[in-house]
Amino acid sequence: MLRRVLAFVRKHLALSRAPAVAGLTPPGARASIRPVTETAEVVVIGGGCTGASIAFHLAERGVRRVVLLEKGALASGPTGRSTAIVRQHYSNEVTARMALESLRVFQKWGDRVGGTCGFVQTGFLVGVREGERAALEGNVALQRGVGIDVRIVSGGELSRLEPELFTEDLVAAAYEPEAGYCDPVSTTTSLADAARARGARIVQSREVTGIRLEGGRVAGVDTSAGPIAAPSVVNAAGAWAHRLAATVGVELPIEPSRHPVCAFHRPPDFGRAPMIYADFVHQFYMRPETGDLCLVGSIDPAAAGNLADPDRYNEGVDLETISEFGGLVSRRYPALERGFSRGGWAGIYDVTPDWHPVLDAIDGIPGLFVAAGFSGHGFKLCPAVGSMMAGLVTTGRRDERLDFFRADRFRTGRLIRGKYDYSIVG
Ligand SMILES: Cc1cc2nc3c(=O)[nH]c(=O)nc-3n(C[C@H](O)[C@H](O)[C@H](O)COP(=O)(O)OP(=O)(O)OC[C@H]3O[C@@H](n4cnc5c(N)ncnc54)[C@H](O)[C@@H]3O)c2cc1C
User: Fold this and answer.
1) Which residue has the least CA distance to atom 15 on ligand 1?
2) What's the average model confidence in pLDDT over 287-299?
3) Ligand 1 in contact with 295 (CB < 6 A)?
4) Which residues touch 41 (CB under 8 Å, ≥6 apart)?
5) Contact status, residue 259 vs residue 377, Cβ threshold 8 Å
């Protein structure tokens, strides 16, 4: 009976691989069974979509003792507040390919990962006025070149595709029929479940307080429940990643900023649900949500100036923001003037100087890896990022794609340049 109870406790506390852990040693046990330091092959810090995807891909590659540590609950940070739009519209080949690779995973989630990511295919439009037409056409050509199903539409075709859209000031739009959105919480929990099923430990409510070094290389992490020895640590702590990096003297240029999302109820005569839409004229994005809602956020790069402490910020939206976003979206969808507000929320972006993440091994500290700084567009990339980072951790090699996201680019001036002014579009 006692053996069965202990087996149950070990399973549910996900501690079965720890050699001996304080608190689990039965009273009166022999002196030789002493608590020893926990060990792992790889510690992943952060239980957002990035950390969960990395843990899954590491476990899938056969890394035997992967431990993911999350200070709150899985997806309790920015991932859980994400609008989780999955589009491939990027202005450079590397991210466009990553978005396409990730879309294929979202489309076949049950087979590839298991569980559900809640992918809903809606289609995506990005509308521009005259001055931006050439950039749009160039980017669409680039995207088609990597195999993305996208084309330019305008005039009557645009109105037929999206009847409620005010199109008079739009010269053209890029139309991506395969795009959609996901449920970011199910995405993260199913990645974590799949990692666990392949032998990883997923530990929630355990905070990493520092990264441990010995002889200049990674030796593990200190946590709120004692240290864990590990030769490799992946910092996937999103808007907190720069603070953890600083514990070993590494500077990551990540600035957390606050980004609100407002929900509006569509009026009963709106017709069918709209596609996802990004507007370069009024600088907002909109996506449909269940319950006849539209979710609206900003793509104005100036919003990155709203710096915030990710542990202490206003998670709600005020009337001023609701009225601003309502005004923007109803200029493009006039029928929404008859809609009404359903409130909203705010989340945090981990913004880097070029709005692209750092996906790299840290030079000079063997065993330390970073996957952070997704600058408000990391959800859609998480399947590809998990696979790329697992490759880097297990082989030590930066492939061509990883070279793009090097940590030292901010120092060497090799910043990633998008072809739009709207940095978040990439
Ligand atoms: C409002 C909003 C809308 C967005 N919309 C989109 C979109 O439409 N499409 C898109 O692609 N992207 C979007 N994004 C961006 C996307 O959601 C993020 O890039 C992505 O979720 C980042 O995931 P992550 O796992 O890297 O980071 P996070 O979600 O920040 O996860 C990091 C985790 O690390 C944990 N952590 C931090 N410090 C520690 C520590 N010391 N010890 C243990 N755990 C720690 C945190 O609790 C957190 O759960 C949006 C973001 C927001 C906020």
Assistant:
1) 376
2) 97
3) no
4) 63, 64, 65, 66, 230, 231, 232
5) no
pTM comes to: 0.92
pLDDT bracket for residue 423 (50, 70, 90): low
Between CA 83 and CA 259 the distance in angstroms is 11
Can you give the pLDDT at residue 422? 55
Contact (CB, 8 A) for 186 and 72 = no
The finding on whether 74 has its CB within 6 A of some atom of ligand 1 is no
Produce one character per residue of 25-56: b if its CB has 16 or more CB atoms within 10 Å, e if not.
eeeeeeeeeeeeebbbebbbbbbbbbbbbbbb
DSSP state of 381: G
Count CB atoms within 10 A of the CB of residue 316.
11
| 376 CB within 6 A, ligand 1 | yes
- d(CA 254, ligand 1 centre) in Å: 13
CA of 347 to the centre of ligand 1 (A): 9
How far apart CA 373 and CA 242 sit, in angstroms, is 9
Tokens of 82: 């994400």
**How many CA atoms, within 13 angstroms, populate the side-chain half-sphere of residue 320?**
0
Q: Report pLDDT digits (tens) over 363-422.
A: 999 999 999 999 999 999 999 999 999 999 999 999 899 999 999 999 999 999 877 665
Instruction: Check pLDDT > 50 for residue 185.
Output: yes
Q: How far is CA 225 from CA 37, 48, 173, 208, 228, in A?
A: 11, 20, 52, 9, 9
**Does ligand 1 have an atom closer than 6 angstroms to the CB of 240?**
yes
pLDDT value of position 55:
99
CA of residue 424 to ligand 1 center, whole Å = 15
Which of the residue ranges 130-139, 326-335, 412-421 would you say has the lowest mean pLDDT?
Answer: 412-421
| CA 94 to mean position of chain CA atoms | 17
Measured in whole angstroms, how far is the alpha carbon of residue 97 from the centre of its chain? Answer: 16
208 lines ligand 1 (CB under 6 A): yes
Q: Is the pLDDT of residue 215 over 60?
A: yes
Contact criterion met (CB below 8 Å) for 408 and 416:
no
Q: How far is the CA of 311 from the centre of ligand 1 (A)?
A: 13
Distance CA(374)–CA(204), nearest Å, equals 22
